Amino acid sequence: MDAYFSMRELLKCLVQRSSMPNLTEEQKHNALMEAFSVVQKTTINTFTKENIAKLYSLRGKVLMKLEKYDDASHSFKTAALLHENVAGGNSVWLHWADFLESRLDIENTEEAALSAGIEALVGIMEGARMENELRARKYIARLLWLVKKLSVYGNITEKEVDAKLEKHGTGIPASNWLPWTLYLGVLVLYLLGNGLSNQSAAVNRPVILESIESEFDSIFFHLLEASRKYITQSAQALSLLHCGKDRESREISLRLPQLVAELQLRPSVAIARIISHVGESNEQQVFYAVAASQPLDFILENVSAAFDPLKNDKGNPVTSQELFRDIIRKLCQNRPVEISSLCRILFELNSVKEHWLEYTLHKVNELKNRLFGFAHRNLESLTSHPIPEDFVAEIRKWQCSLQDFTGFKEISEDIKKCAQDLESDFAIQKGRNDKLTDLLSIVVKWSLLLAAKFDKLPRLLNI
């Protein structure tokens, strides 16, 4: 065992040395050749199966840097085969995925996406399947990014990605999916929202990937805010029912709506299967997610239909609505009492009007997320960039309604003062606060202030 660890550390040092910027190309090559020589001369008779798998993985990494891609591929495959039933060796899958992704980036073709890209996808899912929730995070993160990359290589690649997700994604424990479903919902939303055709995607892949990355955070916060109302209400419903879910499970439910958003935008049997897979052990969280994305009438209708044998359609779901219907039906079959009770509570909660603070906070946060997205696209001229005219027009229109409290209850003097201060701060004047950075400062300030005031509101809800 000591011999293995000594050899592994030596290999890591040599590989790291080959990446040092102050060395010549010849010196880097010599370091890699020395590492390869160490591997070849190592006697593995006394090594465990796990150690042999990791050794072959390191061998593949060295060969990849030496640009001996066929030999590297064989080494990684051997490592994967050896490591199949060995605990603690799952880093093998990440090393192999690194190699396959590097081949995809170099070739940058649909053929490479269908071979190296899909193979990397399967390998990462295999690693995620073997790990616990904490250690699987790095695998799921890589998986989501790779799905995002492969989505620009055309319809055929997209269908193949769905097929592999359906086959291998449901093999990953539901607890490993839960913390990452938030990000999964963002992936295709950006591409669909900007109307990118497969033809244009094929021509501009590097530009598209950079654009996706730059918009990722903005879309993430936008989706989170959009689902906030229903999820907050659902969490209250859960505490009322005392259904036995712990605090961690309730927090995890906040992340689920984004996976549902993916299904709503792009009908995918694979995504639906993963949601159903998560719902087998987390029925309430999945129900909250569906309720956050669909009209209440749709939820009520399909929950009612799920308990009526005459209305249960056994046909294959195709559209997003049909896939949601199928998910709701399965949830009702697994937990009929809880789901029907939650459905009735959601109906009552839907009639509860937002407080003025909550409504205004939503508006400010929506404006903040859009401004940050615009600012990110104009970083080079951010300090001198004026506020766009469409933002100015929208803010002035909103200003006029700030002190209109029609339909809102519990309007205290503090709230009226808050509305006056808001109206004053958002009064854009040329030469005083007409720069984009000025508006960003104001929006961030009021987002924090309104959130603090909203958090001080009573938490009890009378139904």
TrEMBL record:
TPR repeats lie at residues 53-86. InterPro entries: TPR_rpt (IPR019734). It comes from the Eukaryota. Keywords: TPR repeat. This is FAT domain-containing protein. It comes from Wuchereria bancrofti.
